[in-house]
Specification:
By secondary structure, this protein is mostly helical. It is built from four helices and two strands, in the order H-H-E-E-H-H. Helices cover 46% and strands 6% of the residues. It comes from marine metagenome.
Length: 95
């Protein structure tokens, strides 16, 4: 549920951050796959020391990447879709 400030409220089960192993389990991909997408510039997790910390936005990006791969898009095309997702509303075409 979205609160009055436009943020997800706590009762949705959304977390503030995710580890690579949590995303790996949730999306049933290897940690190496997630690191590959990071190397390709499709994911940009923060780091705390040596540990990757993924935001809810990174989780959505991973979901878009995996959906795009399932639909047959190239990584370049998926990158374009992610750029549209990341752009400021009103500055890009329809997603």
């Amino acid at each position: 549920m979205i609160n009055a400030q436009g943020q997800l409220s706590a009762d949705t089960g959304a977390q503030a951050s995710y580890s690579i192993s949590e995303l790996s389990r949730e999306f049933e991909v290897t940690t190496r796959t997630i690191r590959f997408y990071e190397d390709e510039g499709l994911l940009r997790p923060d780091r705390v020391g040596r540990q990757r910390v993924y935001s809810p936005g990174d989780r959505v990006r991973l979901k878009l990447i995996l959906r795009g791969k399932r639909l047959g898009f190239s990584l370049s095309e998926i990158g374009d879709i992610i750029q549209m997702y990341d752009s400021t509303p009103g500055e890009s075409g329809q997603l």
